[in-house]
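User: Could you check the structure of this?
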Amino acid sequence: MKQTTPREAADRKFSAIPYAGLFGDTVMARVVEEIIADPHSVYHIKDLEDLTGNSAPRIREALATLVNLGLVKTSGGKHPAYTVDMSRKSFVALTLLAYAVLDDRKGSEC
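Assistant: Sure, the predicted structure tokens are below.
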């Protein structure tokens, strides 16, 4: 049986956590991870419930914060749709951070 190195064990532990655990394993981190992974999509609460495994009230709270921060725009209404504001520098920074975390994990030197 092959021995697991400490790095491999850490990689496995943090691979399922958004941004390798840098921001913890919170609803906000899960929502940000999902929307940054596919910023061209239009998201509804139900979509993010399915993607993150979190409840609608907690996702609404995270999205309200992201709207206030300007990272996400909303259509409003009874069943609002949410989109990423790709013109924001925070979007670019989070995208680069996502790639950097993967690069550090895989050691690809991209």
